[in-house]
Amino acid sequence: MFNLHEQLIKLQEGEVEIHNDFTFEGIDAIVAKRAINSLTDKLVVSGEAINDDIAFDTLRAFARDLHAVDPKLIARGLDMLVAGFESVVRQASNALSTQGSDPTQYAETLDRYAYLFQWIIERGESSASQIRTSAAQTKGRRRKGVGSVPGSTKAASIAEIVPGWKSKVMDLYLLLQQLFQLPLGRIWNSVPERDSFIGVFMRLGHKVLENPAYGRDSEFQMALFNVMCKWVQTYNGLYGAHYEHLSESMAQLVQLAYEKYDGAQLADEVLRDVAGKEFSSVHDKSGPKNTARFIIKFSQLAPKALLRQMGLLIRHLDSEAHIMRSAMVDAIGHLIMYLATQEEQTDIIKNQVGEYFDIVEQRFQDNHYLVRAKVMQVCQFICSGPAKFPKRRPRLINLVVGRLEDKASNVRKHAIRALTILLESHPFALDGAELASEPLEDSLEKITGELARMAKGVAAEKPTVSKDPEDSDAEMADGDETVNEDDAAQNPGKQADKSSVPDISNAGLTPEMAAKAMHLQFQQRYYRDALYFVRQLQEAIPLLVQLLGATNKSEVMEAMDFFVTAVRFRVDGAQGGIRRMAHLIWVPSTSNSTGASASHAGSTGSPEEARGVRAKLLESYKQLYLQPNERLSASENTSRITRNLISLTFGATLAELISLEELVRTLVDEQFIGNDVIAKLRSVYGYTRQRLPPAQRRGAIIVLGMMAQARRSVVTDDIDLYMRIGLGRYGHEDLTIAKYTCMALQCLGARRSKRPGPAAAIDEAENKAEPRRDPEWFPAAEQALNTIYALGEKPDAFADLLASSSMSQTPADEHAMDIDDDETETLSQQPASTLVDPWDLTRLLFIVGHIAIKEIVLLETIEAELKRRKAKAEPSRKRRATDSRPHDDTMDGDDDDELNQIAGSTEDEIGDIIAAIRERELLSGSKSLLALFGPLLVHICKNLGKFNDRLLTVHATAALAKFMCISSGFCEEHLPLLLTLLQRARSPVIRANIAIALGDITVCFNNLIGENVQYLYGPLHDSNTKVKKTTLMVLTHLILNGMVKVKGQLGEMAKCLEDKDTHVADLAKLFFAELSTKDNAVYNNLPDIISSLSVGAAAVNEDSFGRIMKFLFDFIKEKDRQTDNVVDKLCQRFRNTTDTRQCRDIAYCLALLPYKSERSVRRLLDGLPGYQESLSEDAVYRYFNDIVAKAKSQAAQKPEAKALVEEYESKLREARARTIGEDEEAVASQAAEEADTGTAQYSDDEIDEDEDL
C-alpha cells in the first residue's frame, strides 16, 4: 500500500529505497531511450500501469538521476507522465459520475503520479544547471569533442533547457483544474490523505513561481492561479508570497479569487495582514518594496476590493518607509479613477473622491523626493482619464506648478509631464480648444455685455460677486467636492473676470429668455475658467523656460514637449519657450556635467538622453514649422512653411539668431527643408510688385543666409537677386536688409569663385560702407567690410581706399591727424565740434577699428595658408633632394625656392615674418594708413570728458582696443590708459567693451596681461549688471580655455553666485559646473575660495557663504579621496585662526562633506586636538554634531565604522565639556538631542534608495 505522506517524508529526508533499482546515470543514451519508450508504451495503454512496482521503480530512478538524463529524454518522460495522469483523471471522473463505481480505487494511482511529479518537477527546477552540464557533455561525446562545453554551468531555467517543459507543466495544471472540479472527498477516504495529494501540487506551484520566467507567461500563470483559487475556495487553503518577483503575481491571484471564486474573505484577510505590517527601519528595503508592489498591482486590478480595507491601509501614509507612502499614493490614484468612472455618482462617492484628492494634495509636501515624484505621476494618469475633475483641476495645477521649483530633478521632470498632460486634457473644447487669451477675453466681454443688456431689459439688476473658477463649476462637476474657500483667499489671482455682472432671475422672463440667460451664464463661467487656466499656464512658463537650461536632460526634453504642446494650443508666451529651445542645438552629444546636478535627488541625464536632446529639438521644430498640413495643397504648404520660417526671425535677439542659424543649417543638412521652400523664400526676398512689409523681406534674407551656411547654392544659384535687392535700392532704404545680404554673400568666401558675381558683390558691399546717418549703418558697414575681406583677392587695398574715402568725407583741420604731446592741451581746450562733425568722426573711427581687426584675421589666414603650402611642398622637395637625375630640377623647384624666399624655410620663420608685419608695418609703417589714427585715438581716449558725444567716445575706445590687439609695443604703451578707463569711465558700455578687449588682448599678448591679471576681475564688482555679466563671460572663456592661470581669484567668481541678478548668478553656476570637469580645478582652488569669502573686508556674510559653499562642495562629494584631503586641510585651518567667524565657516564646510568612508571620520578624529578649543562656540559644536549624525547614517551597516563613529562622538563630547567647563552628562544629553535632530534631518534626503516604484 502506497502512502503518499510517508513517501514524501522519506523523499525529503533522502531515505528513498528503490527495490528494482535501475540507474540512468552513466548508461548509454540508447539504453535510456529504450527504457523510457518501454514505460511510455505501458502508460499509453493504461495510466494505471504506474502501479506496477517495476515500472514505478524505473520512474523513481528516472527522477533520482534526472541530472544525468538527456533533456530531450526528460521532455519525453514528462510528456508520458502527463498523458498517464490525464488517463487516470478521466477514469476517476467517469467513476464519480457512474453510479455503483468505486472511485477510491484511483486514490493510490493518483498519489503515485503526485509523488513522481513532486520529485521530477522540483528536482528539475533545482538542478537546471546540472542538467545543462550533462546535456553539453552528451553533445560533446557525440561530436567527439567538437563544440563541447563541459565547464559551461551558466545558470538557466529548466524551461530553457528541456524542450516543452513549461507547456507540459501548464498541461498538468489544466488537468488539475478539471480534477479539482470533482468531489475529491469521494476518492480519498480521509481528509489528510486528500490534503497530502493537493499539497503536492500547491508546493509545486510555489516552486515553479520561484522562477521569474514563469511569472512573465500570463497563460501559464492563469492556469496555475485557477488551481490555487479553487483550492482556496473549496478547501480553505492559503498561499503566501515569499519572493520579490511574486508580489505582483500574488495580487493577480487574490484578484482572481475575489472576482471568480468568491474570495472576498481571502482578499480581506490578505489586505488586513498587509495593513498590520510595520516597517520601521529605513534600511529594510525588501519588505516594504514587496508589500508596496502588491498594493499597487492590486489597486490596479481590484480597486473595489481595496476600497473595502482602505480604512486600515491608510495608516501606511505615515510609514517611515517612503516606498509604502509612495505605494499608497499610487493606490489612491487608482481608487479616484475607479470611483470617478462609476455610472451612479452618489454623495458618498463624491465625498470619497474629495477625501482622496485631499490626501494626494497633502502628499505634495512629502519630505521624500520619490513620494513627491509619485504624486506627480498620479496626477498624470488621473488627469489623462475620462473624468476632468473641473473643481479640482485649478488647485491641482497650482500645486503642480509649485513643484516645478522642487529641489529634486526627478520631481521637476514628472511635474513638467503632469502639466503637459493637464494642458492636453483641458476641458475647454470650444473655439477649437485653443487657449489664446485675446479671443477668450473678447468672448467673455461679449457674453457679459449680453447678460447686462438682458438684465436691463427686465429691470432686474443685482450686484454679482465675481466667482472663483473653482466655485463656478458646480454645474460642470464630474463627481468631486468643492474647493476650500481658503484656497480662493490665498489665490486672489483667480478672479479672472473682475467686472460686475448682474444676476438674472427667472422673474419677468419668458421660458425662452430664461433658457438663453442660463446658457449665457454657463458660457460666462466657461470663459472665466478658461482664462484662469491660461493665466496659470502663463505663470508656469517662466519656470519652464529656466528648466530648458537644466543639467538633467530628461527635464529638458519634458520642457520641450510642454512648449510644443502649448504652441499647438496657442498659449500666450509659449513662443518664447520655443525661441529659447533653439539654444539647445549647442548641447553636446554626451553629458559631462557633475557636481550639483548629480545629487541624490536626481542625477544628470544619461548620454543617450543627452544625444536625444538635439534630435528632439529638430523633431520639435519640424513638427511645429515644417510639417505639411494634409488639408492643404503642395503650394499652400510651401507658403505656410515659408511663413513659419520667416516668423522665427521676428523680434529675435542676436543670441537667438545665432542658435537659429545653427538649427536651420542642421535642418538643411538633414534634408528637412526642400528646394521649393528655398525658392519661395527667394520669391519673398525679391518681391517688388507691391510694397512688402520690411519684416517679411528681412526675415526671408535672414533665413536664406542661414541656409547658405549648409548649402552654398542657395546664394550661387541666383546671386544677381542678392545684388539687385540687398545691395541695390532696397538695401539702401533698409540697411538691415543690406547687412544680412552681406552676411549671406560671405558664404562665397569658403571657395574663391572666378565668376564675376563676387567681384560685383565686393563693389556693392563697399558702397554699403558709405556714410549714412542711421544707427543701423554700423552693423551694415561691419558686414560690408567682412564681405570685402571674405571675397576680395586684395581686401586690404579695398579697405585702404574705403578709409581714405571716409577721411575725405570728414571735414577736419589739415593737422587733425598729426597730434603730438605739445598740441594735446591746445586741442583738448577746444570743443570737439569745432574740429569735426562727431557723426563723421565716429563713422571713421568705427571703419578703421574694424579694418584693424580684419587685418589681424587676414594675416593669420595668410600665415595658416603659407604653413599649409609649406607642409604640402616639403615631401616633394625631399624626394627631389634624393633624386640624382639633373632634369628633375624644373620649375617646381623654382616655385619652392620662391616660397622659401617669401616665407622662410621653417614654420617658425613664417610666424616670425607675420609677427614682424604686425609689429612694424600695420601701425608704424610708412605706407600704413592705420598709423595715422593711433595718436588721434589716444588723444580722444585721454580726454573723454572733453567730448560730449556718447557714440564717439564708445567707438573711440573700441577702436583703440582693436589697435592694441595688433602690436605688443603699442599695447604695452597704452595698456595703463585702457585699465584707467576700465575703472573710471562713466559709460557702462565703454567699461563692458574694455572688459571684452582685455580678453582679446589676453589671447594676443598673454604676457602683458599676466602682470595685470587682477584688473580682469575688477569689473565683477561693477555697479552695472551688463558690465558684470560681460566680464564674467570673458573670464569664463579665458579660464576654461586655459588662457589665464587661476591664482587665487576664483573667490571673486564665486561671489557672483550670490549676485542679485539671476543672469549673472546663472552664468557663475555654469562656469563652476564646467570648471569642475577640468582636472579637479574646483577642488584645487577650494582653500583659496574659502579664504576669499570668509576672511578680510571683502568677505561675504555667513548666509551667502553657506549657500556658495553648499553649491561648490557638491562638485567634490562623489570623490572619497578628495573628501579625505579636504577634511585634513580644513582641520589644519583651525590651528591658524582664533576668529570665531572663520571657525564657524570652517565647521560648516566640514559638515557639508558626506563622510562615506572610515578614513574621513578617522581624519576628523586625528584632527580633534586642532579644533577642540573651537568647540566652545555653539554653532561650531552643532555643525560637528551634524557630522556625527551623517556619519552614523552612513556607517549603520558596518560594525567597524559604527564603532569608529561612536568613539569620535564620545571624544567630541569630552572635548566640548572641557572647553566650556560643564558636566559631561549634561553635554551628552544635549548632544543626544542634537544627534536625533540631525538624524531626522538626513534620514530621507541623504539615504539613496535603489529605485522608484
Structure in words:
It contains 60 helices and no strands. It is mostly helical and 1253 residues long. Among the domains are: 1-128 and 159-237, no CATH class; 794-805 and 838-873 and 913-1033, Alpha Horseshoe (Leucine-rich Repeat Variant), CATH 1.25.10; 1046-1118, no CATH class; 1135-1229, no CATH class. The protein starts with a helix and ends in an 11-residue tail after the last helix.
Shape: elongated
Give the rounded overall mean pLDDT.
Answer: 79
Radius of gyration: 42 Å
| Gap from first CA to last CA | 54 Å
Helix content: 55-70%
Poorly predicted runs are: 136-155, 460-501, 591-605, 751-759, 812-834, 887-893, 1235-1253
